[in-house]
């Protein structure tokens, strides 16, 4: 259902009820009038006031702290009100009913953030970062979301777009005002060296996308190997709880099982897979097929083999790093030929395994700005392609058009693709038209 942009909306903006406090947010042209009807006189802008919330019949619903934020100095850029109520379902339901009676409507999912974007309070990257911050479960996810949601990443993309705009301005100056004495005679050295530097900056940024994916979506570790190699036992030992069924019967694990573990702020997703072997059982065959797909998509494969067993598997076609692990070290005397030996029963080698995984993770992300969504990566690659076209082109006007397309691609990441003020740049730089 398409809603009117001038509707006044409301929603519960705090956590699941019941709770100690429930925050109801209002936004739109009727926000102050609605709050006045429920709470009486409002405190000064951005000042909290303790008010009695009453129904239209004068019945007391609750006492609440009420804050008013006059637009455009609010989250959405509109007049906003927050009511901090006691967090019972009955209180919130009663206030919702009163707001609907006044003529406000319940907000749709993400509608407050959408209004913030439409009113220029947030760009798309900041909106996505805010969503990631709310969903963050680990310290590194929080840090990445803060970099994105508080404007750092947007500032980087905007600075790149501004550099492209300036390069275009210089090119337009040479094309359109070549007879003017105060326009540089050739932009080749001045522009294309800087554009080339920018190209390598963007390419380096694109190359760091995998780090953003790992921090946001988790580091995928697949535990693979033949039946009875100890895969499910290792998963349970790492999770410190019984996630997978463990028996001595080969083929017990038929499907992918996974557990998410926070390892010093990093999200690590461990996957237990079906034992790799030939089987006539159709269910087990499907499990083996899914195991092979998981191995192909892994960031790290733990290749488990019971020490001294005859079952040997190679993973030559796998792109991920493979760590060869000998299991059940407590039951065997020899343990050569492995990267690491472990015992899920006694815990031998598990701490070293965790340390090795953490060492790989800590080298993944330095804390710098990285693209962490496929949408960002798509437009960054487009911008890089257009810049390469400009650098390798011959006709100056076509090269300028490629730079315009590159800046437009960068603008689509933040959602702010405005008409570039090339003439303003030219006039301010070169005093053309004196």
Q: Per CATH, what is the topology of the largest domain?
A: Rossmann fold
Q: Write out the strand line-up for the largest beta sheet, numbering strands in chain order.
A: 3-4-5-2-1-6
The main β sheet shows up as: 6 strands, mixed
Please trace the helix and strand order, writing H or E for each element: EEHEEEHEHHHHHHEHEEHEEEHHHH
Binding site for GTP: 228-233, 247-253, 272-275
Protein name: tRNA modification GTPase MnmE
Function: Exhibits a very high intrinsic GTPase hydrolysis rate. Involved in the addition of a carboxymethylaminomethyl (cmnm) group at the wobble position (U34) of certain tRNAs, forming tRNA-cmnm(5)s(2)U34.
GO molecular function, one term: GTP binding
Descriptive notes:
The chain is α/β, with parallel strands linked by helices. The protein has three domains: 9-117, Gyrase A, domain 2 (2-Layer Sandwich); 152-208 and 371-430, Four Helix Bundle (Hemerythrin (Met), subunit A), CATH 1.20.120.430; 215-362, Rossmann fold. Helices cover 44% and strands 17% of the residues. The chain contains 14 helices and twelve strands. It has helices spanning 31-39, 89-102, 111-118, 124-135, 139-149, 152-176, 188-207, 209-217, 231-239, 282-296, 350-362, 374-392, 396-414, 422-430; strands spanning 9-12, 19-27, 49-54, 60-69, 80-87, 105-106, 219-224, 257-263, 266-272, 300-306, 321-327, 340-341. The strands form two sheets. A six-stranded mixed beta sheet has the order 3-4-5-2-1-6. α6 (152-176) runs antiparallel to α7 (188-207), α7 runs antiparallel to α12 (374-392) and α12 packs antiparallel against α13 (396-414). The chain starts with 8 loop residues before the first strand and ends with a helix. Residues 249-254 and 419-434 have low confidence and may be disordered. (6S)-5-formyl-5,6,7,8-tetrahydrofolate binds at residues 25, 82, 121, 434. This is tRNA modification GTPase MnmE. K(+) binds at residues 228, 247, 249, 252. Its cofactor is K(+). It comes from Neorhizobium galegae bv. orientalis str. HAMBI 540.
């Amino acid at each position: 259902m398409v809603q009117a942009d001038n509707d006044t909306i409301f929603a519960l903006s705090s956590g699941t009820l019941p709770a100690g406090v429930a925050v109801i947010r209002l936004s739109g042209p009727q926000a102050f009038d609605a709050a006045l009807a429920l709470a009486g006189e409002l405190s000064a802008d951005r000042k909290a006031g303790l008010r009695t919330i009453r129904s239209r019949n004068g019945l007391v619903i609750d006492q609440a702290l009420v804050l008013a934020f006059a637009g455009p100095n609010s989250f959405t850029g509109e007049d906003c009100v927050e009511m901090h109520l006691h967090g019972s379902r009955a209180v919130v339901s009663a206030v919702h009913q009163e707001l609907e009676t006044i003529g406000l409507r319940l907000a749709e999912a993400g509608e407050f953030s959408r209004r913030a974007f439409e009113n220029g309070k947030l760009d798309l990257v900041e909106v996505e970062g805010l969503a990631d911050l709310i969903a963050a479960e680990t310290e590194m996810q929080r840090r990445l979301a803060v970099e994105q949601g508080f404007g750092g990443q947007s500032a980087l993309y905007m600075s790149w777009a501004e550099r492209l705009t300036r390069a275009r301005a210089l090119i337009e100056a040479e094309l359109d005002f070549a007879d003017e004495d105060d326009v540089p005679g050739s932009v080749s050295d001045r522009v294309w060296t800087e554009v080339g530097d920018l190209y390598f900056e963007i390419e380096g940024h694109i190359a760091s996308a995998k780090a953003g994916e790992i921090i946001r979506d988790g580091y995928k570790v697949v535990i693979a190997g033949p039946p009875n190699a100890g895969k499910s036992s290792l998963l349970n030992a790492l999770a410190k709880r019984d996630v997978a069924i463990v028996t001595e019967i080969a083929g017990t694990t038929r499907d992918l099982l996974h557990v998410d573990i926070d390892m010093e702020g990093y999200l690590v997703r461990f996957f237990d897979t079906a034992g790799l072997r030939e089987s006539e059982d159709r269910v087990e065959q499907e499990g083996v097929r899914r195991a092979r797909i998981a191995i192909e998509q892994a960031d790290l494969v733990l290749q488990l083999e019971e020490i001294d067993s005859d079952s040997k598997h190679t993973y030559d076609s796998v792109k991920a790093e493979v760590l060869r692990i000998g299991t059940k070290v407590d039951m065997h005397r020899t343990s050569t030929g492995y990267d690491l030996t472990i015992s899920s029963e006694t815990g031998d080698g598990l701490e070293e395994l965790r340390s090795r995984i953490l060492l790989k993770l800590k080298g993944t992300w330095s804390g710098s700005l990285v693209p962490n969504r496929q949408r960002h990566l798509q437009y960054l690659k487009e911008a890089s392609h257009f810049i390469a076209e400009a650098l390798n082109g011959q006709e100056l006007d076509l090269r300028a058009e490629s730079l315009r397309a590159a800046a437009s691609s960068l603008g689509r990441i933040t959602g702010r693709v405005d008409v570039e003020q090339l003439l303003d740049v030219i006039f301010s730089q070169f005093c053309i038209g004196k």
